[in-house]
What does this fold into?
Amino acid sequence: MECIFCRIAQRKQLAKIIYEDDLSVAFDDINPQAPVHTLIIPKKHISTNLDLREEDNVLIGHLFQVANKIARDKGIAERGFRLVMNCNPESGQTIFHMHLHIFGGRRMHWPPG
Ligand code: AMP
Ligand code: ZN
It folds into this structure.
């Protein structure tokens, strides 16, 4: 079975896409853990951040620029927000297509669970 996030990027699987460009897609998480919970993915399939190559350096910077844009557009930039990227099972990663979570709109706790 093909990767679900590749399928979302290719629009073969429905998702609430809020942003798209040549390199990335952002969509709201199906099981939100905060008032704002959006995922940003590279269109290119990369399983985890451990699989990043030197040639992906521009791409990874771009994902952060997209995160900042979404945080500003959703009005959480000044209040504060959290970016999370899980890597491998013990972190809680369940979908092995690298993605950046943006959480905001409520007070975040620390240390994280
Ligand atoms: P992670 O645990 O870091 O791998 O995060 C995977 C995230 O993807 C979880 O927060 C899920 O709720 C979310 N998710 C799974 N399937 C979908 C989907 N079809 N559309 C949107 N979000 C999804
Ligand atoms: Zn994929």
About this structure: The helical segments are 4-9, 57-73. Residues 4, 15, 27, 29-31, 39, 86, 92-95 surround adenosine monophosphate (ligand 1) (CB under 6 Å). The radius of gyration is 14 Å.
